[in-house]
Amino acid sequence: MFGSQINRTAQQPDMALASPPPDSISKMMFAPVISPLAGGTDILAVGSWDNNVRLYAVRNDGQSEPRAMYSHDKPVLDLCWHSDGTKVYSGGCDGAVKCFDLATGQATTLHTHDKPVKCVAFVNTGGQQILVSAGWDKQLRYWDVNNNRAIIRPGSSGPVMLSDRPYAMDHNGQILVIGTADRMIHTFRWSDPFTSAVSRDSPLRWQTKVIKCFPSIEAYAIGSIEGRVGVHYPFMPMDDKISYSFKCHRHDLSNGGVPQGIVNHATTVSHNGAILPSQYVFAVNDICFHKEYETFCTAGSDGAITFWDGMGRTKLKGMTLKELNNGDSESKPPQFGSPVTSCAFNSNHTIFAYAFSYDWSKGHMGVPTANQPNLAPRIMLHPVKQEEVQKKKK
């Protein structure tokens, strides 16, 4: 439908996804299970700024092919899967929350927000199947998937109102965490999803970019535009010794300098009042957990990916631009490549997908032109090695 498959080469050890979107990739997510509707393969859902959500079949050997596509009226900002892998939900700048049914091949609009929908999440809790959406109208909405109706607070006539526009959201079986534009982090428990159990300032000083919950504990990893990640336990005291943060996706100017084009995606910072910047700092665009080991990776606008043991405070593996075939492999570090805007593990954590595309850090002025084919969006499929994701023995 969208083109032919792309095969592995000696220079390109990771497989390229067949026919990726032509515009920036906002979100990728594999189906949580292999559904019979997928013919025994993983299905990768990809949301893009070209207004479309595309579904791809991905085999164990990394071969891929497009399977389906549906559209919003404006760019897609987020998507998620039903827990049984039969439906995809998405939200976009058109304010619509949509559902695509793999069995029928049809997309329907469930409900709408007054402004763009930044975050969506599917939750199985208390015997209910709930779709959560958060929009730039500052509304947090819950939708009963089985009965196709809104879930509202008893005695209320409307949705939950957030303190500001949502920038990031994630959940596990215990908590729902939302980061807003005013640098607040709101944590909800499913026993009362209409009232924030804890609302605190972000543990990071700069704008929240991504939040991902640890799979099995009441904790989350948060990334910001400042090249920093925090590991936070929201129900612990503010001065606890467990929560912490660390720097990542940064490059010192003393390490050979930065190619001219890197300025498109970096922010300079000064140390000790120095006039000249000492580092180029890149946004952390995505965080993805390995659900078995509870380790995670960070994807940055510097075009690099790093795996971490958050509980052990240990770096596991850094995937360099040369390893990722991203940018000029001959340039001195820090090398420059396309930002990594999204990443995802497949259902059994044997394949790791990562997307290169423009991150919109410079608005329309920074959009790659037709004579920059090396910056065109692409998605790579990486065979996961245990040493990359497994915690190191002490």
TrEMBL record:
Region of interest (Disordered), ranges: 1-21
Keyword annotations for this protein, in alphabetical order, are: Repeat, WD repeat
* Segments annotated as WD repeats: 69-110, 110-153
Q: Which organism is it from?
A: Dioszegia hungarica
Coiled-coil spans are none
The protein in question is named WD40-repeat-containing domain protein
Spell out the Gene3D superfamilies in the cross-references: YVTN repeat-like/Quinoprotein amine dehydrogenase
Q: Which InterPro entries match?
A: WD40/YVTN_repeat-like_dom_sf, WD40_repeat_dom_sf, WD40_rpt
Record keyword Hydrolase present: no
- Does the record bear Repeat in its keywords? yes
At the top level, the lineage of the source is Eukaryota
Biased amino acid composition, Polar residues:
1-12
